[in-house]
Specification:
Elements (H helix, E strand, L loop, with lengths): L1 H25 L5 H8 L3 H8 L8 H10 L4 H18 L7
Helix pairs in contact: 1-5, 2-3, 2-4
Length: about 100
Amino acid sequence: MAQQDHIDGVLLGYCIRQFRENLKAKDPKWTQEYVGRKAEIDERHYGKIERGKYPQTSFITIGKIAKALNCSLDNLFENYEKELIAYKRRTGEVDEE
């Protein structure tokens, strides 16, 4: 279970970073610090979430981040699920269909 928690945190962070990087490609203000401030969470904490250091980030915190990134929780979770399936295929946990 600890391994799954770790992977969940890494994948969630990866998805959040993708959203931020897409915004940053259009406007350089979208740094980790900017999103942290906009989400009203500590900028260092936000950076650790992006790097997957907090595998069990609270729903409220994820909601604040999604709102700061102007994305829906549905969209964020959909991307997370795609990344999880891709990870499981790479590691052989899911058969190719």
